[in-house]
Amino acid sequence: MTVVTKKETGRARVNEQISVPQVRLIDMEGNQVGVVSTREALYAAAESDLDLVEISPTANPPVCRIMNYGKYLFELNKKQNLAKKKQKQNQVKELKFRPTTEEGDYQVKLRSLKRFLLNGDKVKITLRFRGREVAHQELGMRIIDKLQTDTADVAVVEQHAKKEGRQIVMVLAPKKK
């Protein structure tokens, strides 16, 4: 039998915590025994050195199962962790370019951009102008256009390129498969 701590009481009721007169009992193999008194169910659980766990408290009578409560909690926790892992938060990654970004640096950043998109993340592309570079906006737009064509197979433009102060910002999202 398992000792139930205060922390676990928010979960299923176990052994002596079950206060109803009758329960629908399921044995350790998953076979339905039928409706029995709670005392008989507790005795059957104690005989097999397992716990009586209330599975469905809202049913009439409540459904209880003979099982190892520690293992049950472990499996429940494992399922919750798996569900949490599958709920991936999409992030917005940012890549910064300059109008004078050379081809080698451009290719490195392009590989990073594709990797982010393939991982399912959105990418914010910031093209920053310094000093007199603001006068040559066409250089920046050329880089933005080149990025759009180079990532056309893996990305769609979520927010088109727009000028914000001394920079041009564009957001790319991964293509739906």
Within CATH, the superfamily of the largest domain carries the name Translation initiation factor 3 (IF-3), C-terminal domain
Uncertain stretches? 4-9
How many beta strands in the DSSP annotation?
A: 8
Structural class category: alpha/beta
- Domain tally: 2
How much helix, percentage-wise, in residues?
25-40%
CATH fold-level name of the largest domain: Translation Initiation Factor IF3
Number of helices: 4
Mean pLDDT: 86
Strand order, biggest sheet?
A: 2-1-4-3
CATH hierarchy class name of the largest domain: Alpha Beta
The value of Rg in angstroms is 30 Å
Encode the helix/strand succession as letters: EEHEEHEHEHEE
Report the end-to-end length measured between terminal Cα atoms. 51 Å
Instruction: Please tell me the CATH architecture of the largest domain by its name.
Output: 2-Layer Sandwich
Explain this structure.
This protein has helices spanning 38-47, 69-86, 103-118, 137-150; strands spanning 22-26, 32-37, 51-56, 63-67, 92-97, 122-128, 155-164, 167-174. The protein is of the alpha/beta class and 177 residues long. It has 2 domains: 6-86, Ubiquitin-like (UB roll), CATH 3.10.20; 92-174, Translation initiation factor 3 (IF-3), C-terminal domain (Translation Initiation Factor IF3). The protein has a 4-stranded mixed β-sheet with strand order 2-1-4-3. A 4-stranded mixed β-sheet has the order 5-6-8-7, with helices on one face. α3 links the parallel β5 (92-97) and β6 (122-128). The radius of gyration is 30 Å and the shape is rod-shaped.
Chart the SSEs and their pairings:
Layout: E1 22-26, E2 32-37, H1 38-47, E3 51-56, E4 63-67, H2 69-86, E5 92-97, H3 103-118, E6 122-128, H4 137-150, E7 155-164, E8 167-174
Parallel strand pairs: 1-4, 5-6
Antiparallel strand pairs: 1-2, 3-4, 6-8, 7-8
